[in-house]
Amino acid sequence: MIKKIFSNVKEYKKFALLSPIFVIIEVAMDIAIPFLMGLIVDRGITNPSKENILNLGTYLFLSVIFALITGILSGYFATKSSAGLAKNLRHSMFKNIQNFAFEDIDSFSTGSLVTRLTTDVQNVQVAFQMSIRLAFRAPLMLIFSFLMSLRIHVKISLIFLLIFPILGIGIGIIISKSFPIFNKIFRTMDKLNTTVSENLLGIRVVKSFVKEEHETQKFKDISLSLFNNYVRVGKLSALADPLMQASIYIVVLLLGWFGANYIVVDHSLSTGELLSLVTYAYQIQVSLMMVSMLIIQMIVARTSGMRIVAVLDKESSLDKNVDGETEIKDGSIEFDDVCFSYSKKEDKLALKNISLKINSGDNVGIIGSTGSSKTTLVSLIPRLYDVLRGSVKVGGKDVREYNLNALRDAVAVVLQKNQLFTGTVIENLRWGNENATYEEVERAAKIAQAHDFITQVPEGYDRIVERGGTNFSGGQRQRLCIARALLKKPQILILDDSTSALDNTTEKLIVENLKEQLPELTRITISQRIKSIEGCDYIIVMDNGEINGIGTHEELLETNEIYREISQSQEKEGDFDEPN
Ligand SMILES: Nc1ncnc2c1ncn2[C@@H]1O[C@H](COP(=O)(O)OP(=O)(O)OP(=O)(O)O)[C@@H](O)[C@H]1O
Ligand SMILES: [Mg+2]
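Above: query sequence and adenosine-5'-triphosphate SMILES. Below: predicted holo structure tokens.
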């Protein structure tokens, strides 16, 4: 895991190396300062000598300045390299996420991916920054402070050894107790992010169902659980401070007691040396504190690191088959005894033994109650998911034999939940084909009946699309999505409930345009409305993952019960809606 994370330092390696070098110089200065202070007391004050004070004072001053400069530089380099690492990690993760198959995204959940890209990366960043500075600084300072103390007075320095077991055991207990809580915090964080992103995307639904209170309560509960866990960790780490303080006071007390003895009774210690010793004692305490902080941050980062690596290492469940066939002969589609399950389990089949043949250029309708697997059926054509059994063929070849990108270029899907992105109208349309000329864009927009409303405003094709396309009506968004799909110049066009927000006249116009201008195109239209599909060459009636019937509108009215029921119920509704 560590190797995988570190491989992302890349171009920031030199900063990551420079920082510890400056840290070493800084530590040398920090060690020299108490020593010089002791000397000033002994050679300048206890035995008054102005010259000594001036000389040693200059050294002290220079050491302080040097420590300051190297401290700033090492801090700067550490920040730069850790921020660089974070940037590269986010990049690598995002790039890999783009390659994920739909089922991979389902398996992580979007909230969790957001936490991994933000909080987790930040945890690793902080740990990395701390470790390049502290991993050298703390142990070096600890060792040298202790060595210098030994040099001053061996016996009295042994007092320092008292601190280690007290602190070691105390910190060990704190760390082992807080580790499981941190794990809980991460999972709660995932939940929090999922709730927030779901809510912001669905804010209109929340408001229209007057579910604000309900959602706020849900959020509050998660937030409270996060709070409680942080408080628990806080309580534990709050113990660390008094522990440190107590141990250091004990040491200083003992130093004072024995030190005074050595000074007065056997003169083996000077006042200046005692002063240095006390300062070293503080430095040892500070370095121990740094070590424990570092360990805690490392534990947090370890969990985060594993979560990041899980994203980096996740290989797309769909093999993109880059060496696969890139030519798609025609727009014919064949389902041969296809079974499919989202969970890959036999007993939870979303599609059961589907066999179906669609000729190139056919105009097919699909209807069926909600949850009858209409969307699932068409998702297998551009290989958004792979079949469990059987095969799906496009242009006479199994979809798995094609280069995935080539296949998806040939099969354009306007999804049920269509999505526009922040940018201009033309930028959104060119998502379908970034090299499309202005004329091509306009032609596609005209076919999709979008040109008129686009050019109604002065900005025209440069009009800004706001986040999620909220500044366009539902029907306008649908038409933009159809135009975007057409720009791919597909051989197969799948419209999954993508004309639901259009009035009958506009829908008819789009269908006529498609028929006239793109007669070769195989068209599959999923709709809940009979009116939208009655003109199709034939219609597939889906029921509970199975094909219940295939035929023309008239044939199905005669032979298919489900179709007849839908038709009758809609006729009644129609009477209501349109009195003429
Ligand atoms: N990503 C998914 N993961 C797991 N199960 C899913 C997923 N998408 C759909 N399903 C399940 O598969 C079944 C068929 O869903 P599908 O979306 O294909 O229905 P549909 O006919 O398109 O319905 P609608 O008319 O409401 O769009 C449903 O029971 C649904 O719960
Ligand atoms: Mg659907």
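The mean pLDDT is 88.
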